């Protein structure tokens, strides 16, 4: 049985933000698949933030600079960029569940590749393993966000996605805690100690032991991911709203994606957001060490605190989106974050460290709100639109490299002006470019869920 999941009047009410948006979060008969898909948000938060640990660890174990260490994020987010569109095209034919399963298998395989990478002790092999992980995550993110949006009433779509994505930073927190405890050895050698070990012929053995510390966490993660794939394979999934038939796809003569301003600008805004988030977290540990002279483990715990703030921000924003529109929330938070990044750049020290924790809290709703605003009203073009937005995650690679360049040439504090500039762009999108044309929603094919 098919039932309508939206009307034009409801869409206008949700977009305007007028009054409380009173709609159920998820239909009761879809709870099991919703829980499994929400678990994916948790799982892919782990490798995303283990990268922040790897950057610091590889700078030590492979003796590389910040720009070279930034290749961790470059390899990772290049995988997203290259596989998002093929993932969307496959799922247009085979459905969301196939995308989930393929993504989890690639994710798990990439984690297992850390073992041979550590055996041969080559930096490029680790980058290849991270690339494979990211190809899997491209499938998961291309599928999970639109699937979550379509699982219930459109008036609660942004709130539903924000709630599901609130479990993503829980995975991030787990990653930083595990990485700080099991990857970081706590051994930080001074130049005279390095010289003594080199003279004694023990320095290379030390570097190899540091490299091997990354293996166990990734093997455990790989096993967990493959177990989750089995659970999804054995669970019946509903036919989500925008899995249209071939005939309905052929009959769709609505406006092309590249002619929809709110969508095109959402791709740009998501590029800026992911770049700001990834760069801010990637260099937070070096920032804390530089600004306060604490050790790497203590700095790792500060990153954990930032992720806890991010998690709290996700749940708080999920509640706040009942009374504010996504655009209002996004614009306000982006302006505040731009100002706070200037503070972090101008006042490195404990004030700057605390300000970066606040930045994390305010970043929390940005990805899901940009995604919801950008895909609104796309109809049969939603999967392709979702893939293009996921491809914009390449911002995490490019902005991080730019921030690393500034950090190497100037200093790590001034480098935080880079994400600050990104937040200015996001604010402009929220206030000036995020509104979809009501006529575009009206001509889209009816959105249905079974």
Quick summary:
The chain is mainly alpha-helical and 450 residues long. It is 75% helix and 1% strand.
Describe this structure in words.
This protein is mainly alpha-helical. It has helices at residues 8-16, 31-61, 66-69, 71-94, 96-112, 114-120, 123-149, 157-165, 168-183, 191-200, 203-212, 215-233, 246-250, 261-282, 284-292, 296-320, 326-346, 350-363, 366-375, 382-391, 395-409, 417-433, 438-443; strands at residues 3-4, 448-449. It has a two-stranded antiparallel ribbon with strand order 1-2. Mean pLDDT is 82; it is low at 1-20, 241-245 and 442-450.
Strand-helix topology:
Blueprint: E1 3-4, H1 8-16, H2 31-61, H3 66-69, H4 71-94, H5 96-112, H6 114-120, H7 123-149, H8 157-165, H9 168-183, H10 191-200, H11 203-212, H12 215-233, H13 246-250, H14 261-282, H15 284-292, H16 296-320, H17 326-346, H18 350-363, H19 366-375, H20 382-391, H21 395-409, H22 417-433, H23 438-443, E2 448-449
Antiparallel strand pairs: 1-2
Helix pairs in contact: 2-7, 2-9, 2-11, 2-12, 4-5, 4-7, 4-20, 4-21, 5-7, 5-12, 6-7, 7-20, 8-16, 8-19, 9-16, 14-19, 14-20, 14-21, 14-22, 15-16, 15-18, 16-18, 17-18, 17-19, 17-22
Strand content: under 5%
Count the helices. How many? 23
The H-level CATH homologous superfamily, spelled out, is MFS general substrate transporter like domains
Work out the number of β strands.
Answer: 2
The ordered H/E elements are EHHHHHHHHHHHHHHHHHHHHHHHE
Mean pLDDT reading: 82
CATH topology: Growth Hormone, Chain: A
Helicity, as a percent range: over 70%
Which strand order does the major sheet show? 1-2
> What's the domain count?
1
Shape: globular
């Amino acid at each position: 049985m098919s039932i309508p999941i939206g009307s034009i009047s409801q869409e206008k009410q949700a977009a305007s933000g007028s009054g409380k948006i009173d709609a159920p979060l998820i239909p009761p008969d879809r709870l099991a698949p919703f829980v499994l898909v929400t678990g994916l948000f948790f799982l892919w938060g782990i490798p995303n933030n283990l990268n922040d640990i790897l950057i610091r660890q590889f700078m030590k174990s492979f003796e590389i600079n910040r720009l070279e260490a930034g290749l961790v994020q470059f390899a990772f987010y290049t995988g997203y960029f290259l596989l998002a569109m093929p993932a969307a095209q496959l799922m247009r034919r085979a459905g969301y569940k196939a995308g989930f399963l393929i993504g989890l298998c690639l994710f798990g395989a990439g984690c297992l590749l850390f073992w041979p990478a550590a055996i041969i002790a080559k930096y490029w092999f680790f980058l290849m393993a991270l690339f494979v992980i990211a190809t899997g995550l491209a499938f998961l993110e291309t599928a999970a966000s639109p699937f979550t949006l379509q699982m219930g009433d459109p008036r609660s779509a942004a709130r539903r996605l924000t709630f599901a994505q609130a479990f993503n930073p829980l995975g991030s927190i787990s990653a930083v805690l595990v990485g700080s405890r099991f990857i970081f050895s706590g051994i930080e050698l001074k130049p005279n100690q390095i010289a003594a070990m080199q003279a004694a012929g023990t320095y290379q053995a030390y570097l190899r032991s540091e490299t091997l510390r990354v293996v166990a966490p990734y093997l455990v993660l790989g096993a967990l991911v493959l177990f989750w794939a089995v659970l999804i394979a054995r669970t019946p999934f509903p036919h989500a709203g925008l899995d249209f038939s071939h005939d309905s796809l052929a009959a769709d003569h609505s406006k092309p994606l590249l002619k929809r301003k709110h969508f095109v600008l959402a791709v740009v805004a998501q590029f800026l957001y992911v770049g700001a988030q990834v760069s801010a977290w990637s260099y937070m540990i070096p920032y804390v060490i530089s600004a306060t002279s604490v050790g790497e483990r203590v700095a790792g715990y500060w990153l954990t605190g930032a992720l806890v703030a991010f998690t709290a921000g996700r749940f708080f924003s999920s509640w706040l989106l009942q009374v504010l529109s996504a655009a209002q929330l996004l614009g306000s938070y982006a302006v505040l974050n731009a100002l706070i990044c200037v503070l972090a750049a101008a006042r490195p020290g404990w004030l700057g460290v605390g300000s970066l924790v606040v930045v994390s809290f305010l970043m929390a709703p940005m990805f899901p709100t940009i995604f919801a605003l950008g895909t609104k009203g796309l109809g049969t073009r939603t999967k392709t639109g979702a893939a293009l937005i996921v491809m914009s995650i390449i911002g995490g690679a490019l902005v991080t490299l730019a921030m690393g360049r500034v950090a190497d040439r100037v200093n790590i504090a001034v480098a935080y002006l880079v994400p600050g500039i990104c937040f200015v762009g996001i604010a402009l999108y929220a206030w000036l470019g995020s509104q979809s044309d009501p006529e575009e929603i009206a001509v889209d094919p009816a959105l249905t869920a079974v």
